[in-house]
Give the backbone structure.
Amino acid sequence: MKEIIQKPRGTKDILPDDEKYWRFIENTISKRCQAFDFGKIETPMFESSKLYTRAIGENTDIVEKEMYEVRRLVQNIEKDGNDETLVLRPEFTAGIVRAYIEKGMFVWPQPVKLYSFGPVFRYDRPQKGRYRQFNQFNLEVLGNADPLTDVVLLLLTWQIFSDLGLKDEIVIEVNSIGCKNCRSKIKKTLINYFKQYKSQLCEDCQRRLENNPLRVLDCKKEACANIATGAPQIIDLICVECKDHFKQVLEGLDDLEIPYDLNPKLVRGLDYYTRTTFEIRDIRDESRQSSLAGGGRYDNLVELYGGKNTPAIGIAGGVERIIEKIKEVDVKIPEFKKSDIFIVQIGESAKKIALKLIYDLGEKGFSTSCSLGRESLKSQLKAADKTGAKLTLIIGQREVFDKSVIIKNMAEGSQETIEIDDLDKVLLKYFKS
Ligand code: AMP
């Protein structure tokens, strides 16, 4: 017996039955983003590994253990003179910032507002809601430090989740983790606090303690979470300017009546975040997979890549998790358009006419489907029913001979025979637009 090859662990096949969800989400996001004057950007699925090690931080899970390297299978032939290590993108922001600098977007009118949609790759431990290849929608605003920008991005996110029918299923959590000037005071204070409990922290947190003590705050392990409850709050340690910035963000959210929760322990997994951070959580889910979207300011990232000082902010949402949520709460989503016409054919000559009709009707803007095998009339009619087509055209030997076609109105079950030359005229009757 031949070995059956299976998909890699942590990946998903998206089958036609799910297409409507993907379309719904992508259409909803595009529509809202365009209304907010965001332009779509697509960056490569693989980039230089330096892009991520420099920005995301050496001591983060993504860089330490989750990146996939991209290599040619055959090594050492026809070297292209570029030996850099390439990796599959584990997130969008770094690639977008690279493009912002490389494509000179800093001379465009600022801020530059961009959205994207597509797969990212992380070597994570697969389970429900956690995959190794998953899709994100991603929103970025580059070139503006104003707290109102944070508010606008959260408003757009809020409206996207409302349009997706999930307004009552989510909570927006917000925090501020200060600017780079605040960072050393925050780190020192947190190290001092957690040091006392070092032996009780999990292995990861013991390691994080020296380099990335902020991450200890969002460790989900019970022992670490209990210790973190008594930790000093970041918000008390940030500078006056950062406090004022955050105050204005919260006032903006209040003015727009966007509900939010303050979460003083909310830090982000990546090193490059500054000031406002936020997460959209599923209110009914306590697990680690409850995060539906997350993001924040990254005011120093463009400079870190050699660009000029460019404050920026972004958010990324997990599409698979959103689809799971939409299914769970049974959001009614629009059925996307099915075939207009199904063509049933019996016999070789009828099949040729059917093919010609698929071509002609397609040119006229109709969507058609057909089973081109040798199935019986009954099973072809069953297939027609399944596609949801409005009309079925039936061509058998008699119709070939008579140069006619039977039109069946699927909703009413009625049918009529017409001359094939009159088809256009008759179709107009059924499809007025
Ligand atoms: P992050 O880039 O880690 O801030 O993640 C942004 C969003 O992507 C999260 O809020 C999740 O919805 C989603 N996400 C992150 N990791 C995974 C994963 N391994 N599998 C599926 N979705 C994920």
User: Anything to note?
Assistant: The radius of gyration is 28 Å. The longest strand covers residues 112-121. Residues 19-35 form the longest helix (17 residues).
